[in-house]
Specification:
Blueprint (H helix, E strand, L loop, with lengths): L4 E7 L7 H12 L4 E7 L5 H6 L5 E6 L13 E2 L1 H6 L4 E4 L5 E4 L2 H11 L5 E7 L3 H12 L2 E8 L2 H14 L2 E6 L11 E4 L19 E4 L8 H8 L3 E3 L1 H17 L6 H16 L5
Parallel strand pairs: 1-2, 1-3, 4-6, 7-8, 7-10, 8-9, 10-11, 11-12
Antiparallel strand pairs: 3-5, 5-6
Helix pairs in contact: 1-8, 1-9, 4-5, 4-8, 5-6, 8-9
């Protein structure tokens, strides 16, 4: 492979992204001294021009909001996994100059759950709707789940989640967010909502909880995750997801067979710890 290659994460806002920390840690461990990974503030309006400015030195891109769906019309092809949720978080540039869209969020979720021993569940609850929730449904479809209850705000969101369930082959029931405390009794709970939105649910964690997958990583732990682990339940965090999906990105962008999971997680944990120090600025 060429000695000097480039990759980056795009999104808006993007300053908070840990992707550069994870990818650079992988490059260092793999000895890819000529590889660079950066972050760029790019919104939907600026995305076409950014892509046009890339040359053959570029190996791939990581995408965060609001670009995961905006990128699709600008690609030559997308994978079946990405098409299933209409979301691309990874772009690979082939030797022929083609732009190929992938989704490593879904297999990253599956890998993060399996790492904690969750491979199949009879019942699961999803907190929230939207792109992350649809990815969660896609992951659940692949780990053999029975039925899923999605707790959402509003009839439109409820309809959307049921439609995603039909598309992905998952039996999805919907319930109002006001009843989300009932979700805590599920064998697997996946929280996909913004910071602070599940704090009130911490008091509803049962004596013997199942597994919690909270997709947030900063701040960490969330009130819900802290209460869950305090009761002895298994907790999968947003950093677990971020690392596992980044492992897949590194492997596909660089062509290396096995990205260094442990080194990437250690780098991510160190970066988060530094952020949480009072003098972090």
């Amino acid at each position: 492979m060429p000695d000097d290659r480039r990759a980056a994460v795009l999104g808006s806002p993007i300053a908070h992204s840990l992707s550069p920390v994870l990818h650079r840690a992988a490059y260092d461990k793999l000895g890819l001294t000529g590889w660079r990974y950066e972050r760029y503030e790019v919104d939907e309006a600026g995305l076409p021009a950014f892509l046009q400015g890339l040359d053959r030195e570029w190996a791939g891109l990581s995408l965060t909001m609001p670009l995961k769906r905006a990128i699709i019309p600008l690609l030559d092809e997308i994978s079946e996994t990405a098409a299933s949720v209409e979301a691309v978080n990874t772009v690979l540039f082939t030797a022929e100059g083609r732009r190929v869209g992938e989704n490593t969020d879904i297999p990253g979720m599956i890998a993060a759950l399996r790492e904690r021993g969750v491979e199949r569940v009879e019942r699961a609850a999803v907190l929230g709707a939207g792109a992350t929730a649809s990815s969660a449904l896609a992951a659940l479809a692949r780990i053999q789940v029975g039925e899923v209850t999605a707790y959402v705000r509003g009839a439109a969101r409820a309809t959307e989640m049921r439609q995603w369930g039909e598309r992905l082959g998952v039996r999805v029931h919907t319930a109002d967010w006001a009843d989300a405390a009932a979700a805590m009794s599920a064998p697997l709970v996946i929280a996909t909502t913004p910071a602070g939105s599940t704090d009130a649910l911490a008091a509803a964690v049962p004596e013997r909880p199942g597994a919690l997958f909270d997709v947030l990583y900063d701040p960490w732990p969330t009130a819900l995750a802290a209460a869950w682990s305090g009761r002895g339940g298994a907790v999968v965090g947003g950093l677990d997801l971020l690392v596992h999906q980044a492992v897949l990105q590194v492997e596909r962008m660089t062509g290396c067979a096995a990205a260094p999971l442990a080194a990437m997680r250690e780098a991510g944990e160190a970066a988060l710890t530094a952020r949480q120090r009072p003098d972090a600025g």
